[in-house]
Sequence to fold (109 residues):
Amino acid sequence: MIPEQLQAQAIWETIPLKTQQVLIQLYNELLRARSKHPMWPACPVQRSAIVCEESGELARAALQYNFEYKGQGTGEMRAEATHVGAMAMRFLLELDNIHALQTLIPSHG
Fold:
């Protein structure tokens, strides 16, 4: 192994198992999302809207858990939290490749 791989492996081994499992889950969801939606907006506002949309779905799942399901079953919240995490990862991983929208909308009034 090259030094960077050894360092990464050493760091990975210090991470608690449950955290490792969540990170793997997020990474797998990131790969699935990239495969399903290979195009990713260049605009940071559009990218953040995707993260917000997923966050809204997590909030809906949490509300349903509290008020409809009466505390039974966390699967939907887990799935939506995974989507939020994966999209946040995608946002961060592509942060060096963003472009502000160049079009200006005239102000009326």
